[in-house]
Amino acid sequence: MMDGKTERPLVRVEQVSKEYAMGGEVLKALNGVSLTVGYGEFVAIIGPSGSGKSTLMNILGCLDTPTSGKYWLEGEEVSRLPENRLAEIRNRKIGFIFQNFNLLPKLTALENVELPLIYRGMKGAERRERAMEALRKVGLADRTRHRPAELSGGQQQRVAIARALAGSPPVLLGDEPTGALDSKTSGEVMELMLELNREGHTIILITHNMDVADQAKRIVRIADGVLDEGGGAACISPRD
Amino acid sequence: MHFAQGLKMAFKSIRSNKLRSILTMLGVIIGVGSVIALVGIGQGTSKQIEEQVQSLGTNLLTVNILGRGVTSTLAYEEAVQFAGIEGVEYAAPYNSNNATLKYGTAGAGVNVIGTNADYFPLRGYELAAGRFITQIDLDFHQKVAVLGSATAEELFGSENPVGEYVRINGVRYKVVGLLAEKGSSALGSNDELAVIPLTTAERMFRSKGVRSVYIQAESMDALDAVQAEVEARLAKIFRNGDDAYRVFNQADMLETAASVSGTLSLALGGIAGISLLVGGIGIMNIMLVSVTERTREIGIRKAIGAKKRDILMQFLIESVTISALGGLLGVGLGLAAGRAVSSLVKIDVVHSADMIALSMGFSILIGVVFGMYPANKAANLKPIDALRFE
C-alpha cells in the first residue's frame, strides 16, 4: 500500500447533494453525502435501485457534477471543473468498469484497451505495450485480436478491467461489474478485482448484490440519497 | 488525439458501413464527376472553336453584302479597291455557287468559289501540285480551276489532276492546281471545293459582282483602322443603307466564342454547385443518423477521457474523409466519362489541373461545412446521457 499518501485521502466527498428537476418537482438523488476513501481501500457501496448509488457513482467518476457540496480527488477540488478538465481527470485518474462492459464492438480487445491511452496522446509503440501488459494482467494475452462479440461475458469484462487498468489510474470504479455475469464468471471477476486490490489498486464498487459486497473490506450503505457507514452487512433489505 | 489516429478511425468506420458510405458519397461522386466531364468537354469545344477562328487569321475582316434594292452585290472593281487601303495585306472578293463537276464518268457536287489570287494565302491554302489562280486568269476570263484535295480525290482517285480537264456544269475547265489537304473547320470541309477565276464565275453563273469579301490586315493593330475605312467606303457605295452590308472581324468572333464558353462554364459551375450541395446534405443526413446510432460509443469514449475536441475531430474527419473520397472517385469518374465522350463523338476533351484541384477542394469544403453540425452535436453530448442511451 501507498503509505506515504495516507494523510491526504484519495477520495473525499463532503456534503454532496444532487437535485434533479422532474416535472416541476425537485428530486433529491443525493442528500448531503460525505465519504472518504483512502489509497488501497476496497469499498463496496451498496443500496437498492433508486437509492442514489448510480448518481453517487457518476459524481465519483466525474461524469456528473454535484448541485452542492465538494469533492476532492487526490487533493484536487473537482466538483466545479469545466468539462474538458473533467475529461482529462476521467482519463488519468479513474478507471471505469461498467455493468454491461461498454466495450466498442468494432474494435479488437487490444484496441479497446488502448483507447484511453490514445486520448492521453500516448505514442503507438508505448501504448501497445501498456495495453498488452494490462491484458496480460487480466489473463487475456491470447485474445488481443478478438472483438468483443467473439469473447464470453467474463472475458469481455476482463477486457474492460484491462482498459480501466491500462492508464494506471489511482482509482477503479466498478458499477455493478458482475451484474451481467453468471455466478461462476462473476466469482472469477471478483477474484480478479480482489487480486488487483491486493496489488495496491484502490477499488470502489457499486452493487446491490450482498455476496459481492461481502468480499469488500468496507461496506457503505446508501438509501434514499443518504449514506450509512459502518452498518452490518446483514441489514440490507432483500427487496432486490 | 492525433490526426492520423482520427483518420484511422474514420476509415474503420467507413469500411464497416461500406454500402452506406458509398451511397453517401454518391452525391459528391456524381457532382464532381459531372463537373470534371462537362467542364472538360466545354473547354475542349471552346479551345477547338478558338483554334479554328485563329486558323482563319485573327486579323481577318469578312464583308458580307446583303444588298438593298437592286444593288445586292458589290462590283468586282469596287471590291478589289479594298486592297489599296493602307494596312491591308490581302483582299479577296469571292462568290460561291454549288455546281456539278465531272471528269469522265465520275461526278461530284461541290462548292465552286470564284475569286482572285489573294484568296489562297488569305485562307491559308497551300499547293500540292500546279499553281494557284492568277490575275491574268481573271483578266482573260480563263477557264481554269484549282481543286481541293477531297474533290480531286473524288474525281481522279490517286491520279494527278493537274493538266486534265473537268466539266463544271458542262463547261470544260483545265485543272491548273491541286490544293494541299487542310482539314475541316466549324464551317465545314475546307477540301471539298473548286476555285475558278472570279470573272469566269460571274459569266458562268450569270451573276455580276460579289457578295463577300475577305480582307486581311497586315497586323492586329491595323485591323481597326482598316475596318473603319472599309465601312466608310461601303457606306459611300450603299447610301442610307447601313444594313445592306455587314463587316465582321475575327476578334469579335473570338470574343463572342469566349463569352459563350464563359457563360457555359458558369452554367456548368452552377449545376455542379447545386449537385455538390445536394451531396453535402446527404452527408449531413447520414452523419446525423450516425451520431444518433453511435451515442453510446460517444458516451464510452467520453467516459474514458475523450474531450469535446476529440469527438468533434473524429466526426469531422469522418465526414471530410467521406466527401474527399467521394471527390476523388468523382474525379476518376469525370476523367473516364470525358475519355468515353471524346472517343465516341469527335470532341476534344481538355481537363485542367485547376478544375480538378478546385472540385477536390470544394468537396473537402462540403465535408467540413456539412459535417460541422453533426460533429458538434456529437461533441456536445453529455457523457452520462450518452452512456444511458440504448
UniProtKB/TrEMBL annotation, chain A:
Gene Ontology terms, MF aspect: hydrolase activity
SUPFAM superfamilies for this protein: P-loop containing nucleoside triphosphate hydrolases (SSF52540)
Top-level taxon of origin: Bacteria
Keyword ATP-binding: yes
Domain (ABC transporter) ranges: 11-240
CDD domains listed in its UniProt record: ABC_MJ0796_LolCDE_FtsE (cd03255)
Keyword annotations of the record: ATP-binding, Hydrolase, Nucleotide-binding, Transport
Protein name: ABC superfamily ATP binding cassette transporter, ABC protein
Protein's organism: Thermobacillus xylanilyticus
UniProtKB/TrEMBL annotation, chain B:
Domain MacB-like periplasmic core: 21-232
Ranges that cross the membrane: 21-42, 266-291, 311-335, 355-373
Membrane topology: Multi-pass membrane protein
Keyword annotations: Cell membrane, Membrane, Transmembrane, Transmembrane helix
Gene: txxe336
InterPro entries xref list: ABC3_permease_C, MacB_PCD, Macrolide_Exporter_MacB
Annotated Pfam families: FtsX, MacB_PCD
Top-level division of the source organism's lineage: Bacteria
Family, per entry: Belongs to the ABC-4 integral membrane protein family.
Localization terms from the record: Cell membrane
Species of the source: Thermobacillus xylanilyticus
Record keyword Cell membrane present: yes
Protein name, UniProt field: ABC transporter permease
Domain ABC3 transporter permease C-terminal, chain residue ranges per copy: 271-383
